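Bug report

Summary: structure tokens for Glycosyltransferase differ between web form and batch submission.
Environment: batch mode, default settings.
Steps: 1) Submit the sequence below via batch. 2) Compare with the web form result.

Sequence submitted:
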Amino acid sequence: MLASVLINNYNYAKFVEDAVVSVLNQTYSQIEIILVDDGSTDNSRQCIEKLAANHSCITPIFKPNGGQLSAFNAGVKRAQGEVLFFLDADDLYHEDYIENIMALYNQHPACDFTFCALERCDGANQKVIQPFPERVTDLGYTGLITYTCRLWIGEPTSTLSIRRSLADRFFPIPFEQDWRIRADDCLIYLASLYNGRKFYLKDPLVYYRVHGNNQFFGRKKDRTNEHFHDLCRAKLFAHASEQVKQYRYIRGHHLYKALLGEAATGSKNHRLLKKYRLALKNNREISLWSRWKYRRKIAKILKPLPASKNTQ
């Protein structure tokens, strides 16, 4: 099964070769690399051309600057693989990352989307970030809880992969100018909203580099930027609700039943199941009796799990 690794680059000439080498050194052999340069103004083009000349598995794409989402769209359009991996040009893969993820897809045919733990590196310190305790967690379907609570269930770009059959449901993604940065949010939200089944791998197989130009860590949140991001997210969700019919019609008691059914899919952990219980807390479309009954049913699902303090 072919794996397509989509590397997006913008002015990371000093990092991009390391990223490519981390893919070339993978223990999994059936790999193509789609290397998208988003109009860099440094010497990235020369670095990429040299890499492509030396490795036939690399397909370079040079395009005018349009932002991260436009790079994703260009890469997905060119990719031939059955599973798509996303890698920022300043990050690195552990040598057996792709082998582990492809094994996960093979062992779980229902799996549509994966993310894994990451190791955050800032030159002097390293920190492993693991949002779920189990080694492999089947999170089931998460579309309704994402739609109702704007839940973000994933990790940064370089930890993400998606089965091609799911990607084809929502690519190309519109609103490229809205998502010049943080476009991994589009992948994470849309994978849920288009009913992809998500799996999480606890192994920290991605090295996330923190530096001065990094867009995820290392920058303080600006209130104006966050407000703009909220508006862009609302537009993305409205687009998804037009494409996926279930979000147009599920209201009131039907929403209660649908959320309960979704909560039972996969093996969601205590923290995520609590989100389902809270989803009804302020939903005035559902009667108080239904909300009380819903919380009791979620409590039954929570009961066999460890105490929440052990799963945070």
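Above is the batch result. After comparison, the two runs are identical; trailing whitespace caused the diff. Confidence is low (pLDDT under 50) at residues 307-312. Residues 250-305 form one domain.
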